[in-house]
Every structure is written in structure tokens, then in C-alpha cells.
What does this fold into?
Amino acid sequence: MDIVPIPAFADNYIWMLVDSASADPSGPRACVVVDPGEAAPVEATLLRENLTLNAILITHHHADHTGGIAALTQHRNIPVYGPATEAIAGVTHALVEGDEVSLDSVRSKHGEVCKLRVMEIPGHTRGHIAYVGDGFVLCGDTLFAAGCGRLFEGTPAQMHASLQRLAALPPETLVYCTHEYTLSNLKFALSVEPDNDALVTRSFDDRATRGQGAPTVPTTIARELATNPFLRCDQSGIRAQAERHAGTSLHNVVDVFASIRAQKDVFH
Ligand SMILES: [Zn+2]
It folds into this structure.
């Protein structure tokens, strides 16, 4: 299976999971898209690459993740998977923690069907879910490269717990988030943790990647653990920075997380 980005809007990625086991290399290949905020770039890619859309996966209800569902399903009878606890027009399969989604048409080169496990990760929205596959995770607007999503509906404690669940995935797990926010996230991360060598190195690398017009996503859990301040609230340097900003001592990691998330909200 290949996972490729379809750029949408200013900085969204609609991830496309493409079958790698088609018997007929010249025939159409099956694919599934994740969080299609708009239909036009998806349709253009299907046409250009000779792909058949067989399912849609949704992580949360925001319009820039769901806006393309109606048009994409108008002439296709395909399943649309999404979180059970959010009202999303067009979702046909409502998912909760622990559910498994079997994408029968999307297979590895060796013919293994793509299976995804649902993980509930509230915080950005109340019902946000992630799809965990073999060696990768589709995590919407929760964990970003060098950052995390805004707390629109959830509490800092919820978001921190959700990020910790993602952080506990195997370190080599590829992280497919839905926005290219990496350079601005890195700028903020450096303001929180200027002495983190791994972070300084990553900033150079990711700036070069963007300079060539390439995506900085996917990232990995290992890279995020080393450089993402929102996964590093237990580090003494980050705690000290958060305490200086709060003007008081902070007694637990959730308070540290809440402080740096609030700083990021107003950071330019
Ligand atoms: Zn969102």
C-alpha cells in the first residue's frame, strides 16, 4: 500500500491509501481517502492516476476535513467511516474505540488487506478519532509535526492524554497528520526549548524540505518524542519555561501542557 498526499486548501493534506497488489498493472487501482475537505483535488487525482475511490475515512467533524463527502459520494455507493460521537453528514459507519476497519480493496504488495484500529483521541474536538495501521497512524488534527491541534472542544487533560496515547505507539510509527504546519510549529518549539539539539537540527532539515516544496509529513513518533514540546511536558527545561510564563510553579504535566498550549495560541 502507498500513502500519498493530495494537497488541499492552503495547507491541508488529504491522505490517499492506494492498493499495491492489483493483478493488472494497467487497470484502475483502488484507493481510500482520509478527511477530504474538498472533492475537486480528489477527483482530479483519481482521474489522473486511474484510481477508483472505494471508501472515505473521517477523523473529526471540521469542515476542512468533511466538506468533500457529499460530492464524492453523490455518484458512488461507498462506505464513509467516522467517529460515532460527532454528527457528520454522510458518515455510514460510526466508529468507537477499538473498532477495526478492514479496507479489503487496499492491499500491500504481498496482498495483505489494510486493517485499521480506531483510537479515540479527544481534545481538538470531543469525538476525534485516529486510525492506527501497521506501522502508521492517521491522526487528523491531534498530533502535528512538532505541534498539536488547538483545543476547540476538549480540555488540556483530555488532549494531553490523547497525545500520550499516540506517543506510546512504536517509535518507528509513521505519523500522517492533516496539515503542513511544521515550520511555524518548529518556530514555536524553538522558543520553548532553544537548547534542544535535536530540535535545532530538525528545523534546518524541515526548512530545507519545504524549500524544495516537499511535505514534512509523515513524521515519526520517535522524531516527535525528541522535538515536539507537547510530548515533552515532563522535561525540566520545558517545565521551567512554562513556570516562568505562568509566573507560578506548576505541579503536574497537564498544567505544563496547558501553559505551552496557551502560549502557542497567541504565538506569532
Ligand atoms: Zn480540525
In short: The two ends are 38 Å apart (CA to CA). Residues 197-211 form the longest helix (15 residues).
